[in-house]
Amino acid sequence: MLDMPIDYWDRFMRVNMTGALLATRAVYESMTQRGGGSIVNQSSTAAWMAAGYYGIAKLALHGVTHSLAAELGGRNIRVNAIAPGPVDTEATRTVVPDGIIDDIVKGLQLKRVGQPEDMVGTCLFLLSDDAAWVTAQILAVDGGQIIRA
User: Fold this and answer.
1) Which active-site residues does the annotation give?
2) Which end of the chain is more exposed for a tag (fewer CB within 10 A), N or C?
3) Does the structural domain 6-141 have CATH classification 3.40.50.720?
4) How many Å apart are CA 135 and CA 67, to the nearest integer?
5) 120 to each of 1, 88, 127, how far by Cα in Å?
């Protein structure tokens, strides 16, 4: 982090943290007019790990998620986030070396890399009326990577 160009840091934070705020600003008035709704932000288990600037951006997103949940709750808008663990995506395949992924999978309770489809059920739940009293939560969908008390 000490050698990272600050321009890259700023751009990274704009995408991974500020983007969620801007998206919420774009929709909250319409959601309010319709009687409320649900927003699901995209986090990562990296937020709970010493994962450099990526983890910091996702941890900051948790703060944005919590703050927006508090600010928008009176408008009947719920704000939550999903925090995936290691998922088989193009980004994972091109950025993370194979050996690293293999080591990560060994530490998972469910011994496989996640698939993008593994996020769908949790996201649909958070968007649904079944989660009508769920807000300000960060749900790990990670094969047991992060175990918290």
Assistant:
1) 54
2) C
3) yes
4) 11
5) 33, 14, 10
Quickly state the pLDDT bin for 66 (edges 50, 70, 90). very high
The DSSP output letter for 112 is S
pLDDT digits (tens, 9 = 90+) for 4-57: 999 999 999 999 999 999 999 999 999 999 999 999 999 999 999 999 999 999
Give 40's contacts (C-beta < 8 A, 6+ positions apart).
80, 81, 82, 123, 126, 127
Distance CA 41, CA 73 (A): 16
Instruction: Break the chain into its structural domains and give their ranges.
Output: 6-141
Angle between helices 52-72 and 19-33 (to 10 degrees): 20
- Indicate the pLDDT class of residue 62, thresholds 50, 70 and 90: very high
Could you give the 3-state DSSP secondary structure of residue 110? Answer: coil
Pull the structure tokens for residue 59: 């941890």
